[in-house]
Amino acid sequence: MRDGYIFGLMLRTRSNIIQKVEKLPEEKRNVIPEGFNNSIHWQIGHLLTVTNLIAFQFAGKESVIPESYKTFFGNGTKPSDWTEEPPAWDALIEELTQQCKLIEDTFSGKLQEPLTMKENFAKAETVDEALFVNINHENSHLGMISAMLKVLG
């Protein structure tokens, strides 16, 4: 897959997510709408955390986010289980904004490289396959975020 194509697709998806949530009033960021398990705050932290896993850790790179993010935003977590303050909204938005550039800078010209984490839930074998899985994951959460925003009004 061409670098420009996959990095552009990744950036468009991420930009769409950020555009949808960045103006959400503070009092609605941690509300869990009826019928949902998580808040928008959790959604954006989850995207940052899972992208870190899929893009960097699958490829054998060091994590670029704090380890504590997994306890807040990893698979199976939810805000009702939080026992301390999660990472700040503004910090998460900033990290989401920078993460795509960091991925592009790290993997430009290396999309066909094999992943070092051969056993992964995505069954991905190369960097481009992992990034493609991540884009699909983000689009799934974009739909969830859109639905949550409608319910939140």
TrEMBL record:
SUPFAM superfamilies documented for this protein: DinB/YfiT-like putative metalloenzymes
Domain DinB-like: 12-145
Superkingdom as given in the UniProt entry: Bacteria
Protein's UniProt name: DinB family protein
Organism (species): Paenibacillus dendrobii
